[in-house]
């Protein structure tokens, strides 16, 4: 098969490589599309390697056709599927544990299906499991609302009946996330987030930004609030008033999906399927595809994320 590997200088290289060999309990998939994530950019930069036993090139989520399956599997040969991976999705074929492979929801394109597993599993893991769930009337704040994770988090929070606050970088992104359901939208380039959070104390926060003002914003949390850190795109240093933590009984939670075991990921994905697949099929939940590129144009696809131009997901097609 061919794959978009990384050479010893971390440059992309479309080259022939060994076909994956399906192990017991795994499914072999012929890839139709692979979604691009910021973790891919980090891997390309040499600072986020695949976990052991996964290919050491980019690609955390794909859609495709099941080619080989285990006995008594919920997936059959020929089924349209989407899968969560530890790495290696930028290739013509992949293998994944059967529990990390799901049927494509009805009425969902292969491009959109490729963009479901990573971001929606991230959102479900953190808002439903790490944060203990959202309930009607909660206030939820998510950074980078126009990103893939941001758009999924906004929809999931509204699905649960929460009020949503989010940040964006342009007026066009602000308009899009409002249409998707965001109640309060802050343009991070022209507006100050701090008074907004002070007036609307969040019960749950999903933060991929961090940076210097994170500590100030943490002080605005509601009593018993849960602040979940999944990345630090604005930097990893801030100053936190620890008295705020214990007085308000705030939980500061660090979380990643990629390093979790296949068993943990399987549990998240199966819960996600059981709760949300029907909503995808009926169009109540969507994955906005910002752009699709042939796999050979991966550099152009990555450049869109690096310039933070995307509203939703960028997808590579095979």
Structural features, described:
The chain is α/β, with parallel strands linked by helices. The protein is built from ten helices and 15 strands. The strands form three sheets. Strands 3, 4, 5, 6, 7, 14 and 15 form a seven-stranded mixed beta sheet that branches. Strands 10-9-8-11-12-13 form a six-stranded parallel beta sheet, with helices on both faces. Helix 3 packs across helix 4 and helix 3 crosses helix 9. The chain is globular. The N and C termini lie close together (about 10 Å).
Short description:
By secondary structure, this protein is of the alpha/beta class.
Instruction: Sum up the overall morphology in one term.
Output: globular
The proportion of residues forming helix, as a percent range, comes to: 25-40%
Distance between the termini: 12 Å
Q: Please report which band the strand proportion falls in: under 5%, 5-15%, 15-25%, 25-35%, 35-45% or over 45%.
A: 15-25%
Alpha plus pi helix count: 10
Q: Rg to the nearest angstrom?
A: 19 Å
* Whole-number mean pLDDT: 97
Q: Element order, helices and strands? A: EEEHEEEEHHEHEHEHEHEHEHEHE
According to DSSP, the number of beta strands is: 15
Poorly predicted regions are none
Let me know the largest β-sheet.
7 strands, mixed
Determine the structural class based on helices, strands and strand pairing. Answer: alpha/beta
Q: What descriptors fit this protein?
A:
single chain; 318 residues; alpha/beta; 7-stranded mixed β-sheet; 10 helices; 30% helix; 25% strand; globular
Compile the SSE list and pairings.
Layout: E1 2-6, E2 12-16, E3 26-36, H1 38-44, E4 61-68, E5 80-84, E6 93-97, E7 101-103, H2 110-114, H3 117-130, E8 139-142, H4 148-159, E9 163-168, H5 171-180, E10 184-187, H6 193-199, E11 204-207, H7 214-218, E12 226-229, H8 242-247, E13 251-254, H9 262-281, E14 289-294, H10 298-306, E15 313-317
Parallel strand pairs: 8-9, 8-11, 9-10, 11-12, 12-13, 14-15
Antiparallel strand pairs: 1-2, 3-4, 3-6, 3-15, 4-5, 5-7
Helix pairs in contact: 3-4, 3-9
